[in-house]
Here is the input.
Amino acid sequence: MFTSYQHLLDELPKDVSVVGGALIIYALSMFSTNTIERRSYYLWVAYPDNYFAFRVQIRVGNIWFSIRGQPREFQPRPELPIRYGRGSAYSEFVVAAPEQLAAACGYLARAAELYRLGRNRFSA
Here is the structure.
């Protein structure tokens, strides 16, 4: 039984595990009070500032991220496609290689910015 997301990351290929761990720490650093809460067996969500969630997908060897914001609000990167996620307010991407680290960091930083702006970002 997996008791933490780190235990799940440890089941991934080493390079994906290291990149995933770095991305999670990076994303948590944007809001000092955030922690990670488990929402289901494989789904983990940032709390209380819920601007990203992730799922470690052991069978396929990658990490799925759901982030605040629509795909049109991000600068797309060819190495890491971003697409619509749950509902119309979220986007998602899948990290499967170290070469995607910079793009994923950019998406997470932008998602944090969009979260801070809230719904007011549409009224400008």
Observations:
- The radius of gyration is 14 Å.
- The mean pLDDT is 92.
- The chain is about 30% helix and 25% strand.
